[in-house]
């Protein structure tokens, strides 16, 4: 900043965040932004060739001139805060920029220009940040969507897209969203959590981790069940790390979120149709095609429709070791939901034959949930054991039952029901391990 004489710096006693919440900050930022837009129009194409550092210097100089001209009562520190906010508007994503850069932020939820909520550690809280107006929200959102080639207007008022960093953005605008643009941004870690890290974070214990490792390596078919933001994708990423490095994995998702730490992964993503519905490629289309791609494992990011039939058939016809997630509140509800989705997809057989197909396909259901305190925990590890009296039978191996101390504090605790998994795949895996340990079969 040039050597401008600003108002008394006694206001430095107030924190930066307090000033950013003040009406003076908002008014100065909005007025200076209009001034900058006029100057940018005068510069024309020249401005588009500037580096971010050059734009930041331009903002400092123009803001200094604007403050002098209008005799705005701010000190140098406050002017620098406004300059940084304006630079983010011109080169970044405005109020969203600091949230996107914060590694603790998991979800960003915008309900109109004045209501921004953020999830940290599984807990939602309202942010003091806000946009100038709904048009400001749309301007930032379109800046996000432009490199993705996605359209957002009255003819296409809903968008669901994958961000370059692996996150996901969902936007819905008027006339469908009554109170202004609704934006949901889901962020993902650059380095997915490993099973060991999940154990250290308390998601499950080492005994459960060992069973999950055996199940994956023995090519058991696994469904990860849970609610929204319960950690299904993170757990699926972790489970995939147990897959041997010499196997070929095909992942299929609506919006690519999985980030597998594996040597040989083919990532497929569905494609929404155009305005007239043409060009739509569904998860079911991709799943059918993946069977011709010589996969050792098929991983479906989320089973939510007719693809459940194709996944069950794949699991039953030699593609053991496949995995997927599904929205359900319990292991039994997970099976009911699979039945319901298969029925909606037009399954032609009887209810009993469908249940038999599910029982033969799925080996384990891992139920995960987000607790009231925001912590994500494995709630149940259940094995599907077959059919009994035309019903799918299961046995729960571990159940989450936290202990409460005398002072009311909850301590994580998983209860083993004393049952060992008896899947034939695990028995075959143990035999193979013993043969390897003895130098191989002879």
Automatic annotation (TrEMBL):
<protein>
    <submittedName>
        <fullName>CpaF family protein</fullName>
    </submittedName>
</protein>
<feature type="region of interest" description="Disordered">
    <location>
        <begin position="1"/>
        <end position="21"/>
    </location>
</feature>
<dbReference type="InterPro" id="IPR001482">
    <property type="entry name" value="T2SS/T4SS_dom"/>
</dbReference>
<comment type="similarity">
    <text>Belongs to the GSP E family.</text>
</comment>
<feature type="compositionally biased region" description="Low complexity">
    <location>
        <begin position="1"/>
        <end position="17"/>
    </location>
</feature>
<dbReference type="InterPro" id="IPR050921">
    <property type="entry name" value="T4SS_GSP_E_ATPase"/>
</dbReference>
<feature type="domain" description="Bacterial type II secretion system protein E">
    <location>
        <begin position="90"/>
        <end position="368"/>
    </location>
</feature>
<dbReference type="Pfam" id="PF00437">
    <property type="entry name" value="T2SSE"/>
</dbReference>
<dbReference type="InterPro" id="IPR027417">
    <property type="entry name" value="P-loop_NTPase"/>
</dbReference>
């Amino acid at each position: 900043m040039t050597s401008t004489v600003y108002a008394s710096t006694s206001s430095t006693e107030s924190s930066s965040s307090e000033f950013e919440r003040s009406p003076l900050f908002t008014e100065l930022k909005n007025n200076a932004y209009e001034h900058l837009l006029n100057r940018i129009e005068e510069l024309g194409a020249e401005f588009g060739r500037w580096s971010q550092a050059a734009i930041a210097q331009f903002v400092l100089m123009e803001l200094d001139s604007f403050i002098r001209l209008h005799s705005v009562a701010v000190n140098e520190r406050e002017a620098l805060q406004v300059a940084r906010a304006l630079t983010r508007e011109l080169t970044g994503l405005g109020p969203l920029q600091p949230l996107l850069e914060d590694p603790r932020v998991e979800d960003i939820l915008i309900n109109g220009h004045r209501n921004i909520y953020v999830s940290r550690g599984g807990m939602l809280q309202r942010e003091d940040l806000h946009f100038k107006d709904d048009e400001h929200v749309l301007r930032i959102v379109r800046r996000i969507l432009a490199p993705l080639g996605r359209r957002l207007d009255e003819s296409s008022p809903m968008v669901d897209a994958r961000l370059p960093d692996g996150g996901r953005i969902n936007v819905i605008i008027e006339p469908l969203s009554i109170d202004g643009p609704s934006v949901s941004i889901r962020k993902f870690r650059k380095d997915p959590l490993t099973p060991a890290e999940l154990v250290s974070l308390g998601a499950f214990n080492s005994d459960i981790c060992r069973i999950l490792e055996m199940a994956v390596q023995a090519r058991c078919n696994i469904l990860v069940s849970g609610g929204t933001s319960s950690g299904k994708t993170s757990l699926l990423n972790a489970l995939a790390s147990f897959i041997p490095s010499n196997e070929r994995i095909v992942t299929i998702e609506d919006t690519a979120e999985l980030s597998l730490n594996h040597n040989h992964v083919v990532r497929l993503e569905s494609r929404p149709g155009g305005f007239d519905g043409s060009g739509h490629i569904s998860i079911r289309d991709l799943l059918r095609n993946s069977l011709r791609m010589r996969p050792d494992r098929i991983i479906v990011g989320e089973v939510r429709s007719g693809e459940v039939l194709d996944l069950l058939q794949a699991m039953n016809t030699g593609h053991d070791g496949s995995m997927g997630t599904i929205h359900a509140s319990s292991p039994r509800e997970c099976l009911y939901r699979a039945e319901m989705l298969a029925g909606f997809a037009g399954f032609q057989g009887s209810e009993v034959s469908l249940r038999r197909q599910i029982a033969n396909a799925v080996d384990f259901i891992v139920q995960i949930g987000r607790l009231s305190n925001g912590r994500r925990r494995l709630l149940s590890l259940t094995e599907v054991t077959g059919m009994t009296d035309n019903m799918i039978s299961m046995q729960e191996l571990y159940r989450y039952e936290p202990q409460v101390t005398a002072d009311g504090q909850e301590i994580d605790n998983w209860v083993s029901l004393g049952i060992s998994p008896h899947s034939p795949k695990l028995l075959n895996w143990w035999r193979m391990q013993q043969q390897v340990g003895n130098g191989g079969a002879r």
